[in-house]
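Section 4.2 – Deliverable D4.2 (structural model, holo form)

The reporting period included a commitment to supply a predicted holo structure for the target in complex with GLP. Inputs used:
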Amino acid sequence: MKLYVMKDYDAMSRKAAHLIAAEIMVHPDMVLGLATGSTPIGTYKRLVELYEAGDLDFSQITTVNLDEYEGLPATHDQSYRYFMEDNLFNHVNLAKEKSFLPDGMAKDIPAECRRYEDLIASLGYPRLQLLGLGHNGHIGFNEPSDSFKKEVHEVTLTDRTIEANKRFFASKEDVPTKALTMGCGTIMHAKKVLMVVSGEDKRDALSKTINGPITPEVPASILQLHPDVTIVCDEKAAP
Ligand code: GLP
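Output (structure tokens):
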């Protein structure tokens, strides 16, 4: 694992955006795995700036997102589709038909999980997968459990995650309790993984991710087994 400790959130975001941009420049038609959450927002801002400056072209890029809440339509301002459009897709020359997320409104959730896993596999998995980190060590929505999940699956969110995400909703009761997420196995198929981590409240989870035992109780710890992981954090999150 390569760890960059940056001065603050802004420096972390710039570094992460530059690493993504470098990859896109070398592989302009790559599959880019994307993440939601507050941490990557600054990274997306910087990518938009690079695009606006004429330094980055997304026209041949395909994107696959890690996860989506169940039961929120794409028009809901807390759906991850909406988040991606708001923070990235609407501001760069990405082809919307080549930007994929799981469908949280699907009637048949197991079938949707299979469809999304097969889609990602048919694209050859991401060349680069961007990740945030949950306070409990979750990646995507892979919550702590007794086994690492291989493929796209449905999860019941832990109370800690619902508590952490309620700040975006009118009340805790409005936070969906279920989601669809890439499995740890899906994530491990990416050629490169780039994780962004910010803030003192993430330090413990990051320390366990890097130095702790590899255990499904800390889903991100599986990244220790991945051959090409870069973590960019700010000083407050540095273990
Ligand atoms: C969310 C997302 C994750 C994200 C994590 C941390 O629940 N499903 O992909 O990495 O929680 O979010 P934040 O960056 O807002 O702390």
